[in-house]
Design goal:
Order of helices and strands: EEHHE
Structural class: alpha+beta
Number of helices: 2
Largest sheet: 3 strands, antiparallel
Shape: globular
Strand content: 25-35%
Radius of gyration: 13 Å
């Protein structure tokens, strides 16, 4: 489905491991955190409207980043 901005709805889910938490991190088609498929320990990123590159930079600067692995990419079938 193409929205008003001409983008197809797409969500990518990653598994993010840091020194404190591990869990799912869902990113929407614009690069922002999608709240409903993100682990509760990472939902603060949604409230701060963080982009994926900013999240990676944030954890690397604090020496807390262990890994970020892509799990799946979902597209709206309609």
């Amino acid at each position: 489905m193409i929205n008003k901005d001409g983008l197809m709805y797409k969500r990518t889910i990653y598994w993010l491991c840091t020194t404190k938490f591990c869990g799912a991190l869902a990113i929407d088609q614009s690069g922002y955190v999608y709240m409903y498929d993100t682990a509760p320990c990472f939902r603060w990123m949604y409230k701060k409207k963080m982009l994926l590159p900013n999240i990676i930079r944030f954890f690397k600067n604090k020496n807390q980043m262990i890994s970020l692995q892509k799990i799946t990419e979902e597209e709206d079938p309609f």
